[in-house]
Amino acid sequence: xxxxxxxxxxxxxxxxxxxxxxxxxxxxxxxxxxxxxxxxxxxxxxxxxxxxxxxxxxxxxxxxxxxxxxxxxxxxxxxxxxxxxxxxxxxxxxxxxxxxxxxxxxxxxxxxxxxxxxxxxxxxxxxxxxxxxxxxxxxxxxxxxxxxxxxxxxxxxxxxxxxxxxxxxxxxxxxxxxxxxxxxxxxxxxxxxxxxxxxxxxxxxxxxxxxxxxxxxxxxxxxxxxxxxxxxxxxxxxxxxxxxxxxxxxxxxxxxxxxxxxxxxxxxxxxxxxxxxxxxxxxxxxxxxxxxxxxxxxxxxxxxxxxxxxxxxxxxxxxxxxxxxxxxxxxxxxxxxxxxxxxxxxxxxxxxxxxxxxxxxxxxxxxxxxxxxxxxxxxxxxxxxxxxxxxxxxxxxxxxxxxxxxxxxxxxxxxxxxxxxxxxxxxxxxxxxxxxxxxxxxxxxxxxxxxxxxxxxxxxxxxxxxxxxxxxxxxxxxxxxxxxxxxxxxxxxxxxxxxxxxxxxxxxxxxxxxxxxxxxxxxxxxxxxxxxxxxxxxxxxxxxxxxxxxxxxxxxxxxxxxxx
Length: 564
Prior knowledge:
The protein is an alpha+beta fold.
C-alpha cells in the first residue's frame, strides 16, 4: 500500500463502551461466542495449520474466527455447548467472506445428537471469485422450525472442486465474529474515540468543504475572519484567484467537487492526536516523528509507520499546521493552501498559478477533496510552546476500502447559524440504524458514526440524552458515507420516563424494576403511564449528495486448481 502525504506548510508569523439510554428490553440471549475467550468454548478442527482465532480482521473486540482451505482441506469449528431452541430464537453472526471462488462455501450446520453428525445446513454463501466483502455484515437465520430441540452449531468452510484460493492470509477465506442465539441481536457499541470540540469543528469544516468544493471556494473568497484576512494580505492572495484555482482543480480532476463526508475513526484519531502532541512538545511542523515522540511512535516515523503503530491498515493522507490561530484560520490555511511554494515537477502543477500566494500544486487542498477518503482523525493541541501554537493541528484522512458509515454530529444550534460550533455538541444521545450490527452514543463533542453493511435505505433513530427522540432515513449508495446531523431539542422529562425517550410506557417499568427504583418512582410511573412529550422539533440535517466514484483496492492472489 502506498502512502500519500500532503506537503508541510510553514505559515504566517512562525510560519467498555458508552452505555445507551435505559429502557431497551433485555433480549433472551441463549448463546454468545465472540472469540474473546479463546478456544475455551470451541471445538477446533483447524489444528495447527493456521490460527483459528486471529486479530487482524475483526468486527468487534480484539479477536474473530477465521476459516480457510489450505491444501484443499475443509475446516470448521463447533460451539461446545448444547442449547434448547425457543419458538422466537434466531441465529445471528457477523460474517465477512473475503477472497473465495464459487467452489468455496461458508456454511452453518446443525446437530441434534450432540455433534455426532451434522445433517442440516441452515446457511450457505459461496465465494464471488474476487476480494469479496470489505466489511462484516450481520447475518440472521430463523431457528423457529427447531423450537424445543437441543442443538449444537458448527461453522463449516467447504471446498468442492475446481479452482480455489488456498492461502490463509488475512484477506482470504471466511471471518466470523459475535455469534449469538436469541430473540434479537445484542447490538454492539461503535466508538469513534473521544474527539474534542475543536477537533469536531475541524471535521465539520472538512465535511462542509467536501459537500461542494466550489461553494467552499466562494466562502473562502468571502471569509471575514480577521486572522484569515491577514494571511491573505501577507501572501498577496486575491479572493477571485481562490475560486479560479478551485474551478481549474475540479475541471482537471485534481479534486472532487462532491466528496463523501468523513467519519471519525478511533485509530486515526489517536494517531493524529499523538502527532499533534509530538509537534507541540518538540516545537516543529512536519510529517515525521521527532527524536522524542510519544509512544507508540518511534523517532523518524513516517505517516505509514505511525498508522501501523496504532493499528490502522488503510491508505492515508495527512495535513499538518503548527501555527493555526483558530479552527477557521487552520481550515482556510489547508484548503486555500497558502504559501509561496512552487513545485514544477508535482502533479497538477500549473505555471499560471505562480505568484498567487498559494502552494502549487495545492497538496493540502487535494487531500481535503479526495473522494476516496472516508475516515478521519484530527488532533488539536491548544496553547503556545516556543515557536508553535496557539493551535497545533494534524489531519489524518484514511481510505479503509469497502467500509461505509451513517455519520454526523448531535448539536444544539445555540447561535442560530445552522452549523455546529464550539460548545454546541451534545453527548449521550443513542443512535440506532436499523439493520446495522452496531449502535453509537454521541461523544463529548457530539460526533457519532455507525458502520452499515451495504448500500440501502436505513431508518435512523436518535434517542436519550434528555432530547426529543427523532427518526429519519439515510440513503447509502455507491459504497459511500452519508451524513445525518441531529439538531437536538430539549424536552421536559415526565416523571416516570426512566429511559428518557419522551414516553412513559412499559419499557420504563422494566428500567424501574431492574435498577431497584423506589416506591415513589413507581407511583410516578403509574400516574404518567401512557403520556408522552415527544415533539417534532428535532430536525436531522439533509444528507450530502455524493457523486464521486469509488476507487477499488487491488489485492492479487494466486488460485489453485485440484482438477477434480
